């Protein structure tokens, strides 16, 4: 089968022939239809410091996908051939304290699809049936392909109550955009998103934010004044991993405000802990999705009319993966999709 492979410990990816995966008794084999390019995939292609530490070549990359089940293992009962599925890319041990307590997203032995084992940028991918999400209601294939990052957005946005709250989102990348759409859909009063890309801020306006703020030109405090906010933001969603963004968020929260932090910094940085203490601000780290509560919430949000169409801005054949990756790496658009049927 054809697959996108990190063949050697060097920059770049290669579309090449690899053996089709073999499934075990508890696995399913999935014919991949579409995939989404993630920031993780960009790191792997660039072969940066993180990738050099995390990846062992050769490796089939990719973890965001939608496909059709074509084979099931002997012990699989709830997934059938022909099902349209996406996959939870965090494979857990099932034996640790958190797994046994049903908190699988907190497993300390998590292995990442397309990072710690061969992934989904291929014509076929194998997964344990316990990591498969079956789409029981109709869903657009582009959206089904990005359920993994959509789940990051939902997990982050719904960490704290949003009804009637003023929400600040730092970072208008694809996950920030989806979080903004979720926050608006979930009943936030104001949703403000910040970035330095005018193109991404334009996308944010399409998903219905109250204010899209270019922080290279205006401050978050300016945004507060424009909206008439006198006490700061109730909920913050940090999506950028940028030290300045986190510090600016803390400085603009109301007393008792709550911050969910998904953005992954590249290194340690200082924050005003005195402000966090005296303002009684709660900070919660977010990694991945809650299995499978977040997935249920995603499907329900879409059934309830949540529109993520503006977030998908690029569609390419898998054969044109170089252009697709360049598009995703530009930092100007939303999600980029690879079609594995063309």
SSE diagram, text form:
Layout: E1 2-6, E2 14-17, E3 27-36, H1 39-46, H2 49-54, E4 59-60, E5 64-72, E6 84-87, E7 90-91, H3 97-100, E8 111-112, E9 124-128, E10 132-134, H4 141-145, H5 147-157, E11 166-170, H6 174-185, E12 190-195, H7 198-206, E13 211-214, H8 220-227, E14 233-238, H9 243-251, E15 253-261, H10 273-278, E16 282-285, H11 293-303, E17 312-317, H12 321-329, E18 335-339
Parallel strand pairs: 11-12, 11-14, 12-13, 14-15, 15-16, 17-18
Antiparallel strand pairs: 1-2, 1-4, 3-5, 3-9, 3-18, 5-6, 6-10, 7-8
Helix pairs in contact: 5-6, 5-11
Number of helices: 12
Name of the CATH class of the largest domain: Alpha Beta
Largest sheet: 7 strands, mixed
The CATH superfamily of the largest domain is known as Medium-chain alcohol dehydrogenases, catalytic domain
Task: Name the shape in a single word.
Answer: globular
Quick structural overview:
Helix content is 29%, strand content 27%. By secondary structure, the protein is an alpha/beta fold. The strands form four sheets. Strands 3, 5, 6, 9, 10, 17 and 18 form a seven-stranded mixed beta sheet that branches. A six-stranded parallel beta sheet has the order 13-12-11-14-15-16, sandwiched between helices.
Structure write-up:
- The active site is at 40 (charge relay system), 43 (charge relay system).
- Belongs to the zinc-containing alcohol dehydrogenase family. DOIA dehydrogenase subfamily.
- This is L-threonine 3-dehydrogenase.
- This protein has 342 residues and is of the alpha/beta class.
- The protein folds into two domains: 2-146 and 308-339, Quinone Oxidoreductase, Chain A, domain 1; 152-285, NAD(P)-binding Rossmann-like Domain (Rossmann fold), CATH 3.40.50.720.
- The chain contains twelve helices and 18 strands.
- It has helices at 39-46, 49-54, 97-100, 141-145, 147-157, 174-185, 198-206, 220-227, 243-251, 273-278, 293-303, 321-329, and strands spanning 2-6, 14-17, 27-36, 59-60, 64-72, 84-87, 90-91, 111-112, 124-128, 132-134, 166-170, 190-195, 211-214, 233-238, 253-261, 282-285, 312-317, 335-339.
- The strands form four sheets. Strands 3, 5, 6, 9, 10, 17 and 18 form a seven-stranded mixed sheet that branches. Strands 13-12-11-14-15-16 form a six-stranded parallel sheet, with helices on both faces. Strands 2-1-4 form a three-stranded antiparallel sheet, with no helix packed on it.
- The longest helix has 12 residues, at 174-185.
- The chain is globular.
């Amino acid at each position: 089968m054809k697959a996108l492979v990190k063949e050697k410990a060097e920059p770049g990816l290669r579309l090449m022939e690899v053996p089709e995966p073999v499934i075990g008794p508890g696995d399913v084999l999935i014919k991949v239809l579409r995939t989404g390019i993630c920031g993780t995939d960009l790191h792997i292609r660039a072969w940066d410091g993180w990738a050099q530490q995390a990846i062992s070549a050769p490796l089939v990359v990719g973890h965001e996908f939608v496909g059709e089940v074509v084979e099931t293992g002997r012990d699989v009962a709830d997934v059938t051939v022909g099902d349209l599925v996406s996959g939870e890319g965090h494979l857990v041990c099932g034996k640790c304290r958190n797994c046994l307590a049903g908190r699988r997203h907190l497993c300390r032995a998590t292995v990442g699809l397309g990072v710690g084992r061969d992934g989904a940028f291929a014509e076929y991918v194998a997964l344990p049936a316990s990591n498969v999400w079956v789409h029981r209601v109709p869903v657009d294939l582009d959206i089904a392909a990005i359920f993994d990052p959509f789940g990051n957005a939902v997990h982050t946005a719904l960490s704290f109550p949003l009804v009637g709250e003023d929400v600040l989102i730092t970072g208008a990348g694809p996950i920030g955009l989806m979080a903004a759409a979720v926050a608006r859909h979930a009943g936030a009063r104001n949703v403000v998103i910040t970035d330095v890309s005018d193109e991404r801020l334009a996308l944010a306006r399409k998903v219905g934010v109250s204010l899209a703020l270019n922080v290279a030109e205006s401050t978050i405090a300016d945004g507060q004044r424009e909206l008439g906010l006198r006490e700061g933001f109730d909920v913050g969603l940090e999506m950028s991993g940028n030290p300045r963004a986190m510090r600016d968020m803390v400085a603009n929260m109301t007393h008792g405000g709550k911050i969910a932090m998904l953005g992954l910094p590249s290194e340690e940085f200082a924050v005003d802990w005195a402000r966090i203490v005296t303002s009684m601000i709660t900070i919660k780290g977010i990694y991945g999705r809650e299995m499978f509560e977040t997935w249920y919430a995603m499907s329900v949000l879409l059934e309830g009319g949540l529109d993520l169409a503006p977030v998908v801005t690029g569609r390419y054949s898998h054969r044109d993966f170089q252009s697709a990756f360049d598009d995703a790496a530009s930092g100007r658009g939303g999600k980029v999709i690879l079609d594995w049927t063309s």
